[in-house]
Fold:
Amino acid sequence: MNMELSRRQFLGAAGAGVAATALGALGFGDIEAAHAEAIRTFKLVNTTETRNTCPYCSVACGVIMYSKGDRTKGEQAEIIHIEGDTDHPTNRGTLCPKGAALLDFVKSDTRLKYPMIRKPGSDKFERVNWDDALDRIVRLMKDDRDANFVEKNKDGVTVNRWITTGFLAASATTNETAWETYKVVRSAGMLVFDNQARV
Ligand code: SF4
Structure:
């Protein structure tokens, strides 16, 4: 550090009215440069913001996912950051520890991304497409309901129950989706009905 600064030199530097120049004259130029080098570019620059809902619990906090890669140009989009949505009426930008760790959940190697089936007798799951998965689910539900639907109880009272199949609903849905899910499940006579939020 140069401490051999004369009064004239100091006043000259101060007279320039620029703090950075004064620091440089005092021998702090390297610090300025190091400081400038240490300033990182804002990591969310040029990212795409996508609003979503935290999938973990029934609070259903709003999140913003920031991704890089322009899919309209054929690039692979990749989420690089997730944070609470400050405009969301439920959480106003806050997230609990589970929600704050959502990026790990999204990038987890064990994350289920498509329907899988373990066929009878098999010891492994195989990937199937959504059409086949939904067709199979609907077929099995229909067959089971036809075989086990209880229209009247032993006293002859109409009960319209279907208790041999259960339904697990997602908690990260809108009120409208939840309402429709409830109506479909209950109107089919299904009593075994729970929500992912309790798992
Ligand atoms: S951030 Fe936490 S409280 Fe909010 S929905 Fe996710 S798990 Fe629930």
Observations:
- DSSP finds six helices and nine strands in the chain.
